[in-house]
Here is the input.
Amino acid sequence: MTRRSRAQQRELTCQRILDAATEVFAEHGYAGASIDAITARAGYSRGAFYSNFTDKTELLIRLTQRRIDTFAEQELPDALSLPPEERVQLVARWLSAQEPPIESLLAVELARLRDDDPDVAATLDRVFEAIFDSVDRLVGIQGSGLAELPRAERRERVVAIVAGVTGANLLRQLGVAVDARTLELVLTGVLDPDGEVVA
Amino acid sequence: MTRRSRAQQRELTCQRILDAATEVFAEHGYAGASIDAITARAGYSRGAFYSNFTDKTELLIRLTQRRIDTFAEQELPDALSLPPEERVQLVARWLSAQEPPIESLLAVELARLRDDDPDVAATLDRVFEAIFDSVDRLVGIQGSGLAELPRAERRERVVAIVAGVTGANLLRQLGVAVDARTLELVLTGVLDPDGEVVA
Amino acid sequence: MTRRSRAQQRELTCQRILDAATEVFAEHGYAGASIDAITARAGYSRGAFYSNFTDKTELLIRLTQRRIDTFAEQELPDALSLPPEERVQLVARWLSAQEPPIESLLAVELARLRDDDPDVAATLDRVFEAIFDSVDRLVGIQGSGLAELPRAERRERVVAIVAGVTGANLLRQLGVAVDARTLELVLTGVLDPDGEVVA
Amino acid sequence: MTRRSRAQQRELTCQRILDAATEVFAEHGYAGASIDAITARAGYSRGAFYSNFTDKTELLIRLTQRRIDTFAEQELPDALSLPPEERVQLVARWLSAQEPPIESLLAVELARLRDDDPDVAATLDRVFEAIFDSVDRLVGIQGSGLAELPRAERRERVVAIVAGVTGANLLRQLGVAVDARTLELVLTGVLDPDGEVVA
DNA sequence: TATGAATGAGAGTTCATTCAT
DNA sequence: TATGAATGAACTCTCATTCAT
Here is the structure.
């Protein structure tokens, strides 16, 4: 009845739809997830969706933003407060605990929509910026030998880390068992400042 | 009378459609790739597709099989004939040269169709079996310290490698520059037998 | 606010689509009647059909049920309230007044779909049960000499009547002039309890 | 190799295709019977069809003509040579022995195509002419009281008979057991010259 | 805000037909 | 004559979206 409860109600509806969308995207992909399937799982009719989102693209954008924000606001500060040698563990553990692991999926779909939608382009840029920046901060602060590497080489390591995490994420989505230890193996290998690339 | 026999003609049509499908899948994904768009790019009408494939699922299966076979028949033998320390480079170079990098994409789509189609399940099993087996052979032969690792740990390394490669593949699809050197960085780190996992 | 409630509106749409389907089926048959042609004739778009029916098969089922119900609820009670000697006239007149005469057609199509669809099988059973039962009641009540015939023979007469009516129906559909009098001729001949079959 | 064997070969192919078409039409209807299904059942590829028929419509026409001719050439002469009181039995027995009973079906399909195709119109006219004429001859020759009836009334009886036979045919196609005796019951009733129509 | 009937573009698929072999 | 690859129109059905309620 109050103005506040209205806003809260709206927020609740949005969150439920985003939660449902997360599941349905994981199961059927973005294209295969119908608005009906999503709202039905959230316990609403399709009209509720269009009262809260302009279209399906916006759903993808807001879902992606929510996932980035969760990491940036909840995990990153914790990790940065730890000594460098413990950060990798914390992050690896958090990454391997995310269910369902749809980050890669969302990124692929955003990439496809990029050219048609400026909002998508902005979100996608923000996603990558946030990811590479986070990794760089996790990795590059004093204490780690990597901080002294030339910028280009350090960037190379960051990309390698993101590749490893992204791939692990995807493998998990495909049903391959990837636990935190395996993720650490990827990260640790890349993070070894003395690691000599064969070539 | 004809330059090409009927069987050859048929084979040519199939290959052209598979080539076109590779491109259109990379651009729009499996669900977003219409049969029309694929056959038009291949220079045929819609019906040509149904003369050569039973349905869209079969297209996905055959495309995936072709990509696995290409690696198994063309690259793997070459790599195995090299000394261990050069194999990683060869494979990394080959992987980063594949255009478009749709392996991850295909795997995700196959995984979605798995439950509905026994052929898909078989193909998917074959994909993973081939990949993990190839990596294990590339990595495990004598000369590399990894050959002496316990089976479970070696498996962990293999998964980590596949994760790295898969992720790099996906990043490339997303427009991130990932060259052979970055890939080697991922692989080399994981392959270091003395690499100590932090945890 | 509205003149009609939602449920009423929905019912109206269904009835209009069923009416249109009746006509288009009569003209082009079940297979030849496209959803587009039906909904266009009803004054709706294609999608309206799928808001109200799950698929084309359901349309056939519901149309058939409507025609049976119309007879069972409107004509049969009237006929049974008449003395036996007037029933045949009433029924014959009603049968020859039905436009378009698609009962036979619907039955043939249902028979084709029977094996693939349990709903169809149930409807078809219900159709025949209703028809043979109605005819038996029309014919068999006291006053008619047929009531005393052995069960098997009476069944034979019922089948013969249905055959005559069905055939007349079909001939009308084919453009042959079949009026109520001709129908009565078929029925009366079969209904003569003293009629001796030649063999 | 000889000219004669060629013609014979062609004839054989046609007959086999017509036989196969009879079965497939009975199972799936005209629209539901694909050229592929028909030629496959006949043991040919679809090309054989187009070497012997101009299109699907011609198949329907020729099939119908074959069935009429079979009756006119094989059964009618036999029946006419019998005394009137035995003719009904012979015809009823022959009618109830035809498998599959698709005459009604063919007539319905021809009627649908009538407006678009002069050949179809001619065939359909010929079908009805042949049927009504045959029945009239079977029934009307001296000895039967019907011969003396006014022309209009006699025509009415003929239509009633055809309706009965057509309906019986259709019921058989729908799986209802209709034997020769039931058919005779229909025919005999209508043929009773003293039968008084109720109205 | 939420509902759900209706819209209509677009998808996968079938199939009569053509034509080079 | 018979084959079968290829064509393309037409069909059933899905689904993002609109809008009156």
Q: What stands out?
A: The CA atoms of residues 168 and 176 of chain C lie 9 Å apart. Residues 6, 9-10, 13, 44-48, 50-52 of chain C lie near DNA strand E (CB under 10 Å from a C1').
